[in-house]
Amino acid sequence: MNIVWTTSEVAPYAKTGGLADVSYSLPYALAENGHNVSVFMPYYPQVMGEKCEDTEVVYELLGVPFGEGNEEWAQIRRHKISDNLSFYFIEHNNFFNRPKLYDMDGHEYSDNAERFIFLSRAIMQAVLALEIKVDVLHTNDWHTALCSIYLKSELYKSYANFSQAKSIITIHNIGYQGVFNKANLYWTGLGWDYFNVHCLEFFDQLNFLKAGVMISDMVTTVSPTYAEEILSPEYAFNLEHPLQHRAVQGKLRGILNGIDVNEWSPETDTLIPHNFSHTDLTGKALCKQALQEELGLTVNPDVPLYGVVSRLAEQKGIDVFIDCIDEMLKEDDVQFAVIGSGDKALEVALANYAKLYPSKFACFIGYNNKLAHMVEAGSDFFVMPSRYEPCGLNQMYSMKYGTLPIVRATGGLEDTVNNFDEKHPEKSTGFKLYELYPASLRDTMRWATSIYFNDKPAFKQMIINGMTTDFSWHHTAVEYEELYQHANTRF
Ligand code: ADP
Ligand code: GLC
Asked: How far apart are CA 207 and CA 221, in angstroms?
């Protein structure tokens, strides 16, 4: 199949979260299975890193209609990985040459509607200019959701490149929908016919994600449990009715993400000081020591070390974590290593604990991939108290590194972690809490601590269970292939 994958971020070129990881690994897995995959994203300044030395300009002056009678010009660059896998970058100085991808100083860029309308339209134009035939147009989140609308519109549907194409939208996070003033419809070139309840209209505003959900041939999300959760008002951020509508049609599916086991593997990881495997965990103990040294924690192999690597956003429940650790820092023999950035109040609260308890609590405020790998490898437990979690990758990374996840049972966390069952340690891989309160998180962490100290065989068994679970993209890629084949039919 000829697959066009559209996204706002891809790792390693530019990344703010898991969408970037998925936008590299899944196209890669699909290409390995023999499909032709073309991935499109913006050319941000971050792309020009060492990973991308061999980017070549493949189209210099791409005309992109933008607003009535107006045209913007873009350049298309390519990073060719193999004959059937290329990453294409849409270069437009004014829209994408910015220090951060979506926001500055905690404020979204005021022209984000224009930026991502432009991106979506530019991708459609690029597909024509590069003469790419499309069997599957796979859009991701709100940023490129408009591609599905363009595909079915008078503007593009008669082009031979697109005439056989099925469209898929994957929801990685329904908390971000691309809701904008309706005046921005002007930039799309679509006309007011599209401003209706079956497409872009949403409480008298534009909603790009909603339009993608309504119009795409198939809607997926990144775990089976999240696919169910988003049908209810508690999780849907007001999109429950469009999603229920698609679910009744058999057009909504949850497909669990995988992880890139080339990047996240304790046997071969070059970002951690010592490699290890489930048959020899010596290196893991050395990684714990190195992490304690690196972060200035007391070096002690026998104290349970809890890691966190997270965007500091409402979604992630870090406020609840902060509310529960005070008592543990005062009373328990535990350590914490936290890496994260985002919400300023949370950053300040974390930094404060690091000042108060330097030998027990360490944090790094900012984005640091090497430290993220070191925390995954060197911790005993990994904490993810998410309010909602469409899939979550870190809990899978941590299991691969023999670090037991402590998670709220939601979305992909529910689907990937098996709660500790003392009668069945052979099936257990982590610890779950169901209600998100400081006391329940604290109780769950103390439960984990008690297993660490008092049931060493079960603790070791769980480590091995997680490390030997297959989280690779293989199964996921097969499920998407099946979905692509049947996107036009009922499931
Ligand atoms: P989300 O996409 O909602 O942030 P995921 O668990 O799917 O959650 O993916 C998060 C990704 O971002 C992981 O690869 C994680 O290691 C990485 N990450 C998040 N925050 C940081 C940080 N401060 N430093 C390094 N990596 C981070
Ligand atoms: C989003 C979600 C996260 C998911 C990632 C990749 O950022 O918040 O749960 O793992 O997308 O699909």
From this structure: 18
Distance 395 CA to ligand 2 centre (A): 12
**Residue whose C-alpha is closest to residue 135's, from 146, 143, 127, 123:** 127
pLDDT at 490: 42
Query: If one looks up domain 2-258+473-490 in CATH, what number appears?
Result: 3.40.50.2000
Identify the H or E element spanning 210: helix 208-215
2-258+473-490 and 282-467 share one fold: yes
Residue 96 to residues 84, 111, 115, 304, 399: CA-CA distances in angstroms? 27, 11, 8, 44, 36
C-alpha separations of 392 from 18, 132, 176, 308, 411 in Å: 7, 33, 16, 13, 8
For residues 405-412, average pLDDT: 98
pLDDT above 90 for 46 = no
Out of 44-48, 158-162, 357-361, 369-373, which region has the weakest mean confidence (pLDDT)? 44-48
Question: 230, 247 in Cβ contact below 8 A?
Answer: no
The number of angstroms, rounded, from the C-alpha of 443 to the middle of its chain's C-alpha atoms is 28
For ligand 2, which residues put their CB under 6 angstroms from it?
17-19, 22, 172-173, 222, 257, 389-393, 412
114-126 residue pLDDT tens: 999 999 999 999 9
Cα separation, 488 vs 299, whole angstroms: 58
Look at residue 411 and tell me whether its pLDDT is greater than 80: yes
Q: What is the pLDDT of residues 279-333, one digit of tens each?
A: 999 999 999 999 999 999 999 999 999 999 999 999 999 999 999 999 999 999 9
> How far is the centre of ligand 2, averaged over its atoms, from the C-alpha of 464 (Å)?
25
**Angle at Cα 107 formed by Cα 106 and Cα 111, nearest 5°?**
150
Q: How far apart are alpha carbons 294 and 305 in whole angstroms?
A: 14
**pLDDT value of position 106:** 80
Contact by Cβ (8 Å): 213, 242: yes
Q: For domain 282-467, which architecture applies?
A: 3-Layer(aba) Sandwich (3.40)
Return the number of other C-beta atoms located less than 10 Å from residue 33's C-beta.
16
Amino acid identity of residue 390, one-letter, is: P
**Domain ranges for the chain:** 2-258+473-490, 282-467
Ligand 1 contact, 340 CB (< 6 A) = yes
Residue found by looking up tokens 């990937």 in the block: 416
Distance CA 247, CA 245 (A): 6
In the predicted structure, residue 491 carries a pLDDT above the cut 80: no
Residue 489 has pLDDT above 70, yes or no: no
Neighbours of 153 (CB within 10 A): 18
Ligand nearest to the CA of 222: 2
Backbone phi and psi for residue 199, each to the nearest 5 degrees, phi listed first: -135, -105
